[in-house]
Amino acid sequence: MTTSVRSSRDIIIRTGDWAAATEFYASALGFELVYRGQNMVGFETGSFRLYVEKGEAHGPVFDFLVPDVQAAKAKLVAAGCALVEEDASVPRCYLRDPFGVTFNLGLRDSSSP
Hints:
The protein has 113 residues and is α+β, with helices and mostly antiparallel strands. The chain has helices at residues 18-28, 69-78; strands spanning 6-15, 32-36, 40-44, 49-54, 58-66, 82-87, 92-96, 102-107.
């Protein structure tokens, strides 16, 4: 399958205890806060950037970027991935591969290689 899938260095988690998670990553691990939004914070960890989002808890979500989200989603679902969540207004979707890895499939900037 030839798609121009590229990973970003972002990993996202969601938690129902957002305040405690934010405090933990800032204090216990000492990660630098580099982004603060109403429902999400981002921490610089060194090799990756960790985003902690308010919401129903789930495990880590990796971030993969493609030039065409719908085309890549169709190919990946045909290859055995399961659609977990979708937001066409962004556009992006969460997929789980046949091996249990959940990832965000998002739109890659056309200027990126």
